[in-house]
Amino acid sequence: MDDFYRDYILDHYRNPRNFGHLEHPDAVAEDTNPLCGDHIKIELRVDDQGKIADIRFSGKGCAISQASTSMLTETAKGMTLEAAARLTKDAVLENVGIGISPTRMKCAMLGLRVLKSAAIGTIAAWPDEE
Amino acid sequence: MDDFYRDYILDHYRNPRNFGHLEHPDAVAEDTNPLCGDHIKIELRVDDQGKIADIRFSGKGCAISQASTSMLTETAKGMTLEAAARLTKDAVLENVGIGISPTRMKCAMLGLRVLKSAAIGTIAAWPDEE
Amino acid sequence: MSVSAALDASKTASIIADFPILARKTSRGKRLVYLDSAATSQKPNPVIDTLVQYYREYNANVHRGVYEIASRATDAFELSRAKVADFIGARSDELIWTRNTTEAINLVSASWGAANIRSGDAILLSELEHHSNLVPWQLLAERTGAHLRFIPVDERGLLVLDDLDRLLDGVKLVAITHVSNTLGTIVPLDRIIARAHAAGAVVLVDGAQGAPHLAVDVKALDADFYAMSGHKMLAPTGIGALYGKRELLDAMPPFLAGGDMIRRVEYRHTTFNDVPWKFEAGTGNIADAIGYGVACDYLANLDMTWVREHERRLSDYAFQRLAELEPRGLAIYGPRNASLVSGAISFNFADIHAHDLASILDTEGVCVRAGHHCTMPLMDKMGWAATARASFYVYNDERDVDALIDALEKAAVIFKL
Amino acid sequence: MSVSAALDASKTASIIADFPILARKTSRGKRLVYLDSAATSQKPNPVIDTLVQYYREYNANVHRGVYEIASRATDAFELSRAKVADFIGARSDELIWTRNTTEAINLVSASWGAANIRSGDAILLSELEHHSNLVPWQLLAERTGAHLRFIPVDERGLLVLDDLDRLLDGVKLVAITHVSNTLGTIVPLDRIIARAHAAGAVVLVDGAQGAPHLAVDVKALDADFYAMSGHKMLAPTGIGALYGKRELLDAMPPFLAGGDMIRRVEYRHTTFNDVPWKFEAGTGNIADAIGYGVACDYLANLDMTWVREHERRLSDYAFQRLAELEPRGLAIYGPRNASLVSGAISFNFADIHAHDLASILDTEGVCVRAGHHCTMPLMDKMGWAATARASFYVYNDERDVDALIDALEKAAVIFKL
Ligand SMILES: Cc1ncc(COP(=O)(O)O)c(C=O)c1O
Ligand SMILES: Cc1ncc(COP(=O)(O)O)c(C=O)c1O
Fold first, then answer.
1. Is C56 part of the contact surface with chain D (CB cutoff 8 Å)?
2. Residue C70 with chain A: CB contacts under 8 Å
3. From CA C273, how far away is CA C296, in angstroms rounded?
4. Which ligand is nearest to the CA of D343?
5. Which end of chain D is more exposed for a tag (fewer CB within 10 A), N or C?
6. What does the pLDDT look like over D28-50, one tens digit per residue?
7. B62 closest CB neighbour out of C356, C376, C414
8. What angle do CA B110, B113, B118 make, to 5 degrees?
9. Is D374 a catalytic residue?
């Protein structure tokens, strides 16, 4: 895990992209990681073609959950809701680019779970348990 | 324990003394051994001097509880209630005349507990735990 | 001796070698003849070793630790849940750790019962039930104003199902044992569950004596709840499990409250965790839960069809040998047919009280249970003050039955029968 | 080095030798530096050996067996109850086996609470409470219409008792921790219990972090209930205990129902057993209960005054060493005074999230907990998203504190602080 904290991860942690809120979001979801209490909220603006036109996230959490969510918002922008709903664990793992220990997997997947919940309009399963 | 089942024990078991009921008893008590479900009831007739003029016991149980209660009724007859209430574990152990294993101690003490309860008019402690 | 019997003897011998306690002698120098597995089973080396390994190598609290041994403990704890669930054909998200069968039944009566049972509702039990599957329902009935009904038992110890549909009328819950711990009677669950569901009732099965001895598939049975105790099926003491259909569990309020079963807590309000953790408050019995999975592995490896057949054969032999003593006053209770019973036989011997009998057998190293077997109402109904019970498991063999008979002969001498 | 410190080092070394897990290396070849005893403690050889001996020599169900191993198991089980009771100054007929602290508290809330708490009554807790001593009371309050009040905590993590008498007005029950698991704060129970009793309230103490670390005498404290977990005090997982004053226990309705807690059962009516068995339904956690007694022997032999002093000294050293990192952003929470805390220290390091910190420490073999420590409301009130917590026990020494500091230095490098 100590190799996990690379420069770009720390950068996303300390300077999260798309952090904050949208004025009138079309879709919102939030969730807490029951294991640590980390909380993430994601707000989406969806355009006429069903694409994610804008995205913001907020909440507190560890470098893993914050950086992976920050990167995920960049991945998601421009995607259709359907495509976002189909995102898997791998999308996050590719983003972070380095192994995550099983104990921290939920941290990495929290943002994705919230994004998918926002996309489908109900609570999504944990991406690492699908 | 196999030496326990001597002739006189088996005789008291199969031919219990003072077994049955009294017409208008002056004192009655009964109890169940929670460990095995054995149940014993004792009825007393008390004379003017506070002595146990007559005694009967009833119930079902193992050779140990039946024989020790049967012998105890013989011991108790003629005693004052105060004396009966003061009877200890040793009175029973002397009667049966042979070691009782700890697991069966409650069987041996059930009759005494009931007698003491009848004598004091409320539930007595287990004689082996006093 | 046929080849298959010989093969079987070698299989049994290798099983016996796995149970260190069976190699011990009593204080009188007798071989330990353990015939009380219905009370609790003995434990094989792999289960004992699992506990030692856990405490020596990776003892840590589960679910919230990020360090290595906490992660290993969490994985083993949850993997074990999956193993125990799989052993009865369930998914791991439908399996709740409890202390034992009793707590599992209390969980359902406190949670499902409080949410679903109303004044005037009926709860159907059988007359065979263990106190643990009776008293919780008495208390629930008292609290809610519901009433209890009982499927009657006949003098052979078999349930009388002729009136089942009438008994089921207006019933919200059927709580019934899989196997009678006193008489060994195997209950025809298929039929009862089908009729109960047709009548709109939910069915809880007390599997304390089912899971250890019979191949159980909760989905095929279509049981709504299935309760069991690890300690009766080679696992350590202190761990049991409740299976419940996911949709029922999801809808149920929590049972005990505290750490682990929560999602978010504020001073004045709490939201709860997902099933199964919603029902597991506080630090679980981690080591023993892990041991339970190993016990299920051990049984699955023996094959539950073999276990059942082994016990059927042993019961058959026991019925035969006990019958030899009938002329001298031995009375055998229950169905007396090895196909209808699962490895527990109740009996009495002439006028020897069951406790005296058990004490005498003990002097020969033979361990049997004597008393009411936590089924006082059944005993009262049958008119028995107490019975002696011999129960068998995977590590018993014909020698044990022979030892029982020899010890009974000795009791006959002592009591001058 | 003074003579007494040298003596102490040799005592600690001999303690460490009793804990086999502490001789292990992590997968990265690091020494295991276990600083998470507030979550669960490690187990010494005598406790592990007790389990093995039980399963290899005398495993049997207790209370009803007349044969030799059942008698040995029953004696050991009840002797252990006496030992655990004695460890906290109680009598054995006032000590109920539970799974853990959480179940002990739930027992009181379900039994005493249901019988005594009415709509409009107040229950007084503190803002320090663990979820296990909060959520059960929330649910009881919801069910009964009672309301909760809280003794406030100040920014140092100390309880503010100025308003205690006003807070106690109309209070039926005070449920309060002995020691905060998050901040280590030792609660001034003497004063609170005296005032609570003067106000007519019954007092339950959550002793999960008290019994392992402080000499406890429930009679001197005059606590009405005291709840504790074996696994936090060298005993196996899955066993805990509730002490209750005998007259309170006698008057309380049963908790879980089933075998063992009954006296006489009929199909439609049951009378219950004496205390403590009235509250113990079903087969208990026999092996682990016996192990709990051995754990108490071990601690009593070390002497709880020594344990407290050892931890005080270690905390003192830890506060000193942690302070060295303050200039680089380390924040220490809680009273920061070894006389006021019992072996648990919460902290954060600059902008490193506690989970990341724990992960990095783990790579150095240092085990600390990160998160809300099952005290979410306290965290919210203090404004901390999460903290890292190092907690000490009898087998820790200065080397462990040094290892913690070295690992924190490494985290500073990784996070470029
Ligand atoms: C103060 C306090 N109370 C209660 C508990 C709950 O203990 P357990 O999980 O053993 O029931 C804990 C342990 O986490 C604790 O620290
Ligand atoms: C049929 C049956 N139900 C329930 C129980 C209770 O099991 P436990 O004591 O493990 O909770 C038993 C065991 O004694 C049993 O045989």
1. yes
2. 103
3. 27
4. 1
5. N
6. 999 999 999 999 999 999 999 99
7. C356
8. 125
9. yes
